Amino acid sequence: MSKSSQVLRISRIELQSAGKVESAQLTIRGSPYEVQKQQDDNILSAKFSPPLEVQELFSLSLNRTRALCIQKWSRKKISFDPSEVLSNLEDHQFRKVQGNVTIVLDVIPPNQPPDGPATRCAPLLSHSGLLTPSTEEVLKQCPRFRILVMGKTGVGKTSLINSAFGINDARPEHYEPGEANIDTPLCSKLNDRFVLHDSKGFEAGEEDNLYNVKAFIERRKTHGDVKEQLHAVWLAFQVPLERFGQRLMEVGMEEFLQEKSNILGDIPTIFVFTKYDMLTEDIERRWILSRRNYTQADVDLEADQYLQQHCIQPIQDLTKQSDIPYIAVSSKGRYARTLKGLTELTHQKVSESFAQQHGTGPSPVPTVTAMAQRVVPWLNIEESINVGKRKYWTAVFAGADFSGNTIEDCIGVIHTDIVKVWNFYDPSGFLLCGHFRDFMMGVVNTLDKSPTKEIAPNNAELVFRRYGIALVAMLPIILPLSAGAAVIKWARATYERMPDVQRRFMAYITDLTHVLDIIFTLTASRDEKKLTTGIIKTAIVLYHMSQRRRDVHTKIKEFPVAIFGGRDVNAELESIVKSRYTTDGDLKERVENITPEELEGDEDWDPSQSHGDKLAK
Ligand SMILES: Nc1nc2c(ncn2[C@@H]2O[C@H](COP(=O)(O)OP(=O)(O)O)[C@@H](O)[C@H]2O)c(=O)[nH]1
Ligand SMILES: [Mg+2]
């Protein structure tokens, strides 16, 4: 059957980061279908049940508002070819990036009954090949981590948010729509997973704001839908320097705190004392002037006592609560650990508050909290393990009855789940594309090889030096792009060689997690968070060449056959995934020393296009 004769069946359309797009219209054979804005998130979507069936070109019109133009509205029409859509599906989705809008079509695969039970009840492993990633269910329940940040203008709220959620270059135009106000949810194009409510507190002349804030929190608190609730609150106060006559808070905030337990109830709330660097510097300045000898530990202790007396005690008195979660932070680079502390504390409090939900299993909120933050890779690892354990790990290791193709499908959804939990800014979808999956499969397949036969890292380095070849160009040389065939090969080795198949699942999950962890480090310190193939290839090459990869593979190969199919296998996998790439000192150093120049160039995945030719000569 040729592709063009196939019918494309669309069950849903979504426009992400829709920003200034006000509305959209899908036109199929002259019939219009409206794509509507969803409540308060900047997402437009429409569901089609039964699905829309298309065989010929169809189009989507975007209606935008253009604030700075004389003509307020602009209309843009984008055409789609059903056969192009069908041949570029990833996990039953087709993505197209158009300027700053990503269009996602959910497609029912051609071999699937249009509205069969498989699409509705999402079976664990279906023989028809349709598996649903667990993250899809999580995100359906709660697509964004919703946080309220309160504090006077200038205390450093925006700086904190930018660093915690990896939107370092966020300028006002990244926010939609415009003015900050507690009722206006703010989203960033650079991070789909969080939504911010920003409230400036209760400055003079804004006393009636207390009423608005209370009403807002009450509405969110009593909302029945978990995605509309507030998942965390940061109450931000700049550490007051007493000798400059600074005050911790204004009168309105005092009133708010007196009623805190009534107003906020069980919403995880963290007291954040900002600009901690100014406090420690002030202490040091005084001590230098008085010629006192001191260590860093003395400064920390003094600062702690100061915080206790001038920040924590007054808040305990106002709230009548002795156990308040708090942290002192600074947005300055050398205090990065404080930002990590805030992120971990937030995740911990959210996890305590949102553990189980009635009837539907674990709450999606801790997972989406980990996805949203871009500071603590450890949280992504932990939550990807939790997501894995929801369904697929158990299925794979319990020796579920899956035949041939579903092993591929299963690896496919595990890949999607892990990538989604890491939530990189990847508008081109590189991490979900077939090339990346193939390269990862290439890494996993070295499980078979004897380590001595591979290119030793030292040789590889000689190669770079002699030919002046960038690390990114190494990838096609060391790993075949045709690894897809290898998946099928080992997927065929079903039941009787079960431990082998399970070992490969273990290696896939571990290798992918390590590569993503390296990508995290490569992007964390950069302002430009957008993933490029250069960054991804460098991470694969570094990991592939490393002793860490050899050790992981050796460990997996040495697991006794007896653990497979048993209960210990999940625990073993968890422990191996949790031990980070940074345990390999050499690899850690290499990753940290990569320069921005080394990540550039060679934007093609295809080996024949790359410098590989040069090496061959
Ligand atoms: N010293 C110091 N200055 C900061 C810190 N965080 C933010 N600032 C500065 O404080 C000012 C206000 O920051 P901003 O994040 O816009 O505060 P917001 O009004 O609460 O959103 C800016 O000039 C920041 O550069 C910090 O941790 N230490
Ligand atoms: Mg601000």
From TrEMBL:
Residues 594-617 are annotated as: Disordered. The chain crosses the membrane at residues 467-488. Residues 595-606 have a biased composition (Acidic residues). Keywords: Membrane, Transmembrane, Transmembrane helix. It comes from the Eukaryota. This is G domain-containing protein.
